Amino acid sequence: MERVDEIIDRVEQALLVTLLSSMIVTAFLQIVLRNLFSTGLNWGDPLVRNLVLWIGFIGAALATKEGKHINMDIVSRWMPPLGKSLIEFLAQLFSFVICGFLTFAALKFIKNEIQMGNVAFLEIPAWIPEIILPIIFGLMSLRFGLLSFRTLSKLTKKGERENQGGKM
Questions:
Q1: Distance between CA atoms of 147 and 145, rounded to whole angstroms?
Q2: pLDDT tens, 19-54?
């Protein structure tokens, strides 16, 4: 599972570079066309908005993988190491469950978008750029699940060491 996650990580990083470059070029082209030629690309602004969405979500998935996602550690500052690990595990497990719910909600949203037949830009169905939602929430759910599993295994190893230390 770790190897698959590393491959996904590389794909995410390549996508980020490609999408960010595309966004910068499109935005720059829009500015040049508007200021110098009093025209623009009809699809430029919607494309940039969707690229921002994709970049933000892919960045969130990368932050989750690296354990740099937003967290609140006010209580854990005054906890012993075992307590910190337990709070970390509970937070990761909670995030896993919430991201799982968001994955299913995003899938339902995409299903509704397909049925409604909305168009995003350049006659591209709206659900195509929005497909990032269930993909990333699913990936984040997977990563939070892996993180919680790792933290739980560390907790059990710490508990075993403490039990062995107390018996000697």
A1: 5
A2: 999 999 999 999 999 999 999 999 999 999 999 999
Count CB-CB contacts under 10 A for residue 133: 20
Q: Tell me the one-letter amino acid at 33.
A: L
Q: Which residue has the tokens 């030629």?
A: 37
Q: Say yes or no to pLDDT of 136 above 80.
A: yes
> What contacts 61, CB < 8 A, 6 or more positions away?
12, 136, 139, 140, 143
When the pLDDT of each residue in the chain is averaged and rounded to a whole number, the result is: 89
Neighbours of 150 (CB within 10 A): 15
**Closest alpha carbon to 12 in 138, 128, 136:** 136
